[in-house]
Amino acid sequence: MLDSVAGLGLHDHVCWIFDDEDDVRGAALQWFEEGLRLGQRLLYVGAREPEALNADLARLDGVAALVAADALRVVSLPTLHDPAREADGPPPMARYAAATEDALADGYTGLRVAADLTRLAVHPTAWEAQARWESEADRYMASMPLAVLCCYDRREVPGAALADIASFHPLVHGSRRIAPFRLFATQDALALSGDVDGFSVDALNRLLGMAAQPEGGVLDIGALEFIDHRGVLALVDHARADGGLSLRAAPPMVRRLCTMLDVAL
Amino acid sequence: MHHAGRRPLIRDRAHAFAHDALLYDGPDDFLEGTLPFLREGLAAGEAMLVAVPQDRIALLRAALTGHADRVCLVDMTRLGRNPAAIISAWRDFLGENDVRQRPARGIGEPIWDGRSAQEIVECQRHESLLNLAFDDGPPWQLMCPYDTRALPDDVILEARRSHPFVRERGVRRESRDYVAPASVLGPEEDDLPVVPDRAQRLAFTRAEMTDVRRLVSRQALQAGLDEERRADLVLAVSEVASNSVLHGGGDGVLAIWRDADALVCEVRDRGRIADPLVGRARPSPHQRGGHGMWLVNALCVLVQVRALADGNVVRMTLHAR
Question: What Rg value do the Cα atoms of chain B yield, rounded?
Answer without folding.
Answer: 20
